């Protein structure tokens, strides 16, 4: 036996002994969530964890700590219900949690400041957007490894996949184009410009050369025939035909639309226009603005439930309500004073809305029918967003 | 031993450097002070290897090692399946025993699918890190391995496999979490520790480059607690305790970039400051007579310059202070062109040339979940009423006063007053207000202007939003003498008016607005009549996306017989966010009792800056 073989054998044996000693006291992970649709996931920016609230009991059934100063941004369940993932904005890493045991099972380095994310329809690919890295990290959910980084984007915020999973569309908030990605090769195929910058832009450099408010998301219609992308600076929504990847119509909405949200029945889409504190309701059939209605300041999200739209006005403490049958305002719900509302998810029955309220570390549960609400406190520090598996309103800001 | 100690010390120093770096103290040199590794004692190592060889041999012959597999012990492989074997090790090559291993097919997610079936086969690695599954049918599988303190390993394999599978487990590092000793660590490995040092050094560099190096932040939060009569405070409701609001400090681990810190500071500063706004306009106009006997105004040019300074400050919860100081000078056409209504809406502000005037100064507070807004002070009451979307603002829409205001409202001056607006943000809203109407009056009782309005939001046939309003007003200070100049009683002073107003979006490009008003005539018995209508176009026939244009018509029929017909069109260039340029053309036709008709064409330009 050579000396090197002897050394390896020695190390191996030592490892056996040490390993046995180290693992004896560690119990097997228990199953904390048997049904992944039974919980609301809450991403807590300042306590750096994901908390899991049982939908029926409204109790926190588990928390997964990710590490100090991770500052997770958005949380999402994988389509197969096996994993929960989040991007740690300050840690430049993606975190993968076992959805049953709620144990952190993998940390994967990404590019700079990972925020919003999406899964391919088959659940195989986890696309993690890195707005400050101008890239998307492609994570293989089978091997739980990052297999590629797609460069060439400009502050990529949200990614959406076609239903067949062949292409993905990236909203670039730092530009006026939507990126088309070939999912088979994980490569940027094309840039689709939503609309040109008006000629008078050169007279207004303060506006057009300062902070850029471009495209947040290219949201697909329910039938997958079109994608709608709102551009903040240009105040328009571009309609993209994914068969040819070209803009087929440009719809003018109010100033500084934050992004577009699709109603669950597939009839309308809404842009919250923070420039003039209105919302534009777009008829998806005629591809025209059906109504422009008064709303509130600093809108961060729109949820649909019980035939209504609920628009979150972050700094006012109000959720504005609109009747989606009559396209008229239907009042507003005062959640509180001196609070900051973040984003919300809707349950799969379209009855309850789970709204993160960061100031008091709460989740506000709104009954969409009665428009009453209750607060669940101590969900974690600075809850930033919520997520329910299979919800149609899973988004972030 | 010295090697391990030195590396551990070096690691410790890097960690300390991280902590100091976060708190703002540079500590670059300390990490470079670690001494180099020393040679191990050869003989000691050889003796140890000999002893370990003996122990290894004994373990390899023990029955538990041989039977630690997923399949039943001693069972022969089936003819239709093959074995999957492998070994679990850490990054240093040390074995990981007792790891949870699962083998199952990978199933793509399907719509409506709630859970992927659990892995079909499970096992644990043996003491030497090995594992095996027997009778595995051919196909594609996912092999997953979990062990405490390690990241999950997951890989796709094809069965039958040609060789044992070596699974390498990476340590799971969670800064700030309680430390878990990874299984199978065995001996400290030089390479491993060097890699860890390198990782931490990279992390330190990343932190320095992208973050504010600060302690974890402390923030004051408003919290709701329960306090009983003895002052005992609890977080949850308990019998005898009442809910109270208090404030307390909490610590958060929110690392912010320098940009975010600056933005927060500026935002906080802005909230506490008095905001100043400016709205300035320059309006040259020309008058060309088109009908009637020659008038002085024919061929004359006019120029009016106006500047408004706005001050707003938040002084309490949902309470705002607002003041508007205006300076205006110049010669509007209204001083020469004989019209019933003003050709330039800015003229109404012209109280004294070249002097600053306080137009408005009021406080507004919001009550009842901010449904009710109360304003009081020196105000322009008509600002709160008859908000027509297409014809309401002389700074951005029509210039003619007849297409900015409803003359039937009948309030020409600002004064002290009060306004209440109840708006539940549903279909209906209600407004009521009162204001001093005559600045020369010695009491409010002699000059009280009262106005009420009901508004209704409609979306007929889903063509677009429409706002419809009905208002009614009473003014007891409009006249103090009768037609012959004789004093009149208080009851006769009251003059009433009513009117309607609407704006209806007809399409995404076209909005229609209209007004009607019927005030009691000041000269004769009966009511004057006022009508106006306007069409505003956006996103259609424009040069730039934010441009818009409109045409409007108004007609005022006085009960005494005088009549005015006015038409105006304008095109507004949105040159920049704070700068607009609009071209206006107005034609007015005046018919006075006992006088020939007179017509004037009044083209004009408005340069408007608002910031």
Describe this structure in words.
The complex is a heterodimer of chains A (397) and B (611). Chain A has two helices and 32 strands. By secondary structure, chain A is mainly beta. Chain A has a domain of 175 residues: YVTN repeat-like/Quinoprotein amine dehydrogenase (Methylamine Dehydrogenase, Chain H), CATH 2.130.10. Chain A has a four-stranded antiparallel beta sheet, with no helix packed on it. Chain A has a four-stranded antiparallel beta sheet with strand order 4-5-6-7, with no helix packed on it. By secondary structure, chain B is mainly β. Chain B has four domains: 89 residues; 113 residues, Immunoglobulin-like, CATH 2.60.40; 45 residues, no CATH class; 304 residues, Porin (Beta Barrel). Helices cover 14% and strands 42% of the residues of chain B. In chain B, the strands form four sheets. In chain B, strands 11-13-14-15-16-17-18-19-20-21-22-23-24-25-26-27 form a 16-stranded antiparallel barrel. Chain B has a four-stranded antiparallel beta sheet with strand order 3-2-5-6, with no helix packed on it. In chain B, strands 4-1-7 form a three-stranded mixed beta sheet, with no helix packed on it. In chain B, a hairpin with a 5-residue loop joins strand 17 and strand 18. The longest helix of chain B is centred in the N-terminal third of the chain and has 21 residues. Chains A and B meet through helix 1, strand 7, strand 23 and strand 27 of A and helix 2, strand 6, strand 8 and strand 25 of B.
- Major pleated sheet of chain B: 16 strands, antiparallel, barrel
CATH architecture descriptor name of the largest domain in chain B:
Beta Barrel
Number of helices of chain B: 6
CATH class of the domain at 120-294 in chain A equals Mainly Beta
Number of discrete helical segments of chain A: 2
The oligomerization state is heterodimer
Unreliable spans of chain A are 1-27
CATH class annotation of the largest domain in chain B: Mainly Beta
End-to-end distance of chain B: 72 Å
Average of the residue pLDDT scores of chain A:
91
Largest sheet, spatial ordering of strands of chain A? 3-2-1-32
Task: State the end-to-end distance of chain A.
Answer: 63 Å
What is the beta-strand fraction of chain A?
over 45%
How many domain units of chain B?
4
């Amino acid at each position: 036996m050579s000396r090197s073989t002897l050394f390896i054998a020695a190390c191996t044996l030592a490892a056996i002994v040490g390993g046995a000693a180290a693992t004896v006291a560690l119990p097997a992970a228990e199953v904390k969530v048997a049904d992944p649709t039974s919980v609301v996931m809450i991403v807590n920016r300042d306590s750096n964890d994901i908390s899991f609230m049982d939908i029926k009991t409204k109790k926190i059934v588990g928390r997964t700590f990710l590490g100090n100063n991770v500052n997770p941004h958005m949380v999402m369940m994988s389509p197969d219900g096996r994993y929960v993932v989040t991007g740690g904005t300050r840690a430049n890493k993606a975190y993968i949690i076992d959805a049953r045991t709620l144990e952190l099972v993998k940390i994967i380095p990404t590019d700079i400041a990972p925020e919003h994310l999406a899964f391919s329809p088959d659940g195989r690919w986890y696309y993690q957007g890195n707005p400050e890295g101008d890239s998307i990290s492609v994570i293989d959910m089978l091997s739980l490894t990052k297999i590629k980084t797609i460069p060439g984007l400009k502050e990529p915020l949200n990614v959406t996949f076609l239903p067949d999973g062949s292409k993905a569309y990236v909203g670039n908030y730092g530009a006026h184009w939507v990126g088309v990605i070939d999912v088979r090769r994980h490569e940027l195929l094309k840039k689709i410009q939503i609309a040109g910058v008006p000629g008078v832009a050169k007279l207004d450099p303060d506006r057009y050369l300062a902070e850029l408010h471009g495209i947040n998301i290219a949201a697909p219609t329910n039938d997958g025939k079109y994608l709608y992308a709102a551009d903040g600076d240009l105040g328009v929504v571009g309609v993209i035909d994914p068969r040819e990847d070209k803009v087929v119509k440009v719809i003018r909405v109010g100033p500084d639309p934050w992004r577009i949200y699709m109603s669950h029945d597939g009839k309308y889409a809404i842009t919250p226009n923070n420039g003039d504190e209105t919302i534009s309701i777009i008829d998806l059939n005629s591809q025209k603005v059906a109504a422009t209605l008064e709303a509130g300041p600093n809108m961060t999200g729109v949820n649909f439930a019980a035939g209504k739209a609920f628009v979150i006005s972050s700094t006012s403490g109000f959720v504005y309500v609109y009747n989606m049958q009559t396209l008229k305002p239907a009042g507003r719900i005062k959640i509180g004073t001196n609070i900051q509302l973040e984003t919300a998810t809707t349950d799969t029955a379209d009855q309850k809305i789970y709204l993160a309220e960061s100031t008091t570390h709460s989740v506000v549960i709104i009954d969409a029918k009665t428009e009453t609400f209750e607060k669940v406190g101590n969900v974690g520090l600075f809850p930033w967003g919520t997520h329910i598996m299979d919800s149609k309103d899973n988004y972030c800001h | 031993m010295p090697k391990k100690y030195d590396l551990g010390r070096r690691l410790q120093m890097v960690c300390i450097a991280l902590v100091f770096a976060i708190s703002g103290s540079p500590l670059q040199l300390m990490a470079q002070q670690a001494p180099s590794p020393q040679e191990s004692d050869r003989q000691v190592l050889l003796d140890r290897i000999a002893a370990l060889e003996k122990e290894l041999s004994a373990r390899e012959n023990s029955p538990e090692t041989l039977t630690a597999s997923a399949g039943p012990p001693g069972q022969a492989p089936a003819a239709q399946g093959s074995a999957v074997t492998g070994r679990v090790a850490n990054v240093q090559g040390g074995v990981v025993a007792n790891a949870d291993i699962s083998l199952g097919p990978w199933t793509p997610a399907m719509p409506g699918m709630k859970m992927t079936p659990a892995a079909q086969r499970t096992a644990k690695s043996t003491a030497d890190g090995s594992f095996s599954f027997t009778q595995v049918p051919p196909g594609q599988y996912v092999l997953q391995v979990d062990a405490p303190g390690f990241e999950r390993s997951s890989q796709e394999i094809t069965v039958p496999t040609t060789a044992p599978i070596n699974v390498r487990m990476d340590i799971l590092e969670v800064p700030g979490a309680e430390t878990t000793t990874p299984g199978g660590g065995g001996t400290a490995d030089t390479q491993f520790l060097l890699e860890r040092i390198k990782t931490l050094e990279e992390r330190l560099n990343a932190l320095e480059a992208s973050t504010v190096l600060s302690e974890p932040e402390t923030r004051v939060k408003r919290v709701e607690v329960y306090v009983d009569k003895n002052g005992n405070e609890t977080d949850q409701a308990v019998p005898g305790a009442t809910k109270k609001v208090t404030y307390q400090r909490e610590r958060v681990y929110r690392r912010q970039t320098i940009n975010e810190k600056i933005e927060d500071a500026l935002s906080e500063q802005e909230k506490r400051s008095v905001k100043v706004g400016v709205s300035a306009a320059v309006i040259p106009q020309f008058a060309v007579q088109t009908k009637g006997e020659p008038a002085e105004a024919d061929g004359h040019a006019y120029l009016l310059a106006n500047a408004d300074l706005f001050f707003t400050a938040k002084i309490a919860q949902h309470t705002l202070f607002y003041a508007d100081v205006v300076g205006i000078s110049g010669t509007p056409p209204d001083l020469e062109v004989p019209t019933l209504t003003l050709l330039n809406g800015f003229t109404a502000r012209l109280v004294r040339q070249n002097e600053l005037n306080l137009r408005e100064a009021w406080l507004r507070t919001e009550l009842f979940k901010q449904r009710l807004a109360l304003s009081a002070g020196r105000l322009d009451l008509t600002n709160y009423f008859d908000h027509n979307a297409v014809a309401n603002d002389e700074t951005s829409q029509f210039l003619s006063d007849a297409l900015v205001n409803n003359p039937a409202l009948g309030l020409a001056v600002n004064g002290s007053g009060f306004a209440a607006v109840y708006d539940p943000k549903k279909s209906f809203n209600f407004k009521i207000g009162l204001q001093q109407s005559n600045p020369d009056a010695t009491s409010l009782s002699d000059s009280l202007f009262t106005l009420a309005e009901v508004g209704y939001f409609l979306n007929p046939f889903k063509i677009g939003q429409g706002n419809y309003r009905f208002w009614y007003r009473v003014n007891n200070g409009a006249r103090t003498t009768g037609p012959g100049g004789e004093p009149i009683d208080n009851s006769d002073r009251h003059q009433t008016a009513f009117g309607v107003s609407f704006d209806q979006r007809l399409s995404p490009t076209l909005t229609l607005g209209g007004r009607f008003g019927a005030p009691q005539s000041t000269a004769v018995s009966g009511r004057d009549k006022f009508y106006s209508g306007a069409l505003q176009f956006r996103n259609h026939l424009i040069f730039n996306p934010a441009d818009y244009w409109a045409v409007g018509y108004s007609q005022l029929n006085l009960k005494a017989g005088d009549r005015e017909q006015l038409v105006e069109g304008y095109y507004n260039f949105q040159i920049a966010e704070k700068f607009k340029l609009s071209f206006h053309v107005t034609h007015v036709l005046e018919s006075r009792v006992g006088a020939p008709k007179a017509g004037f064409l009044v083209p004009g330009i408005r340069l408007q800056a608002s910031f």
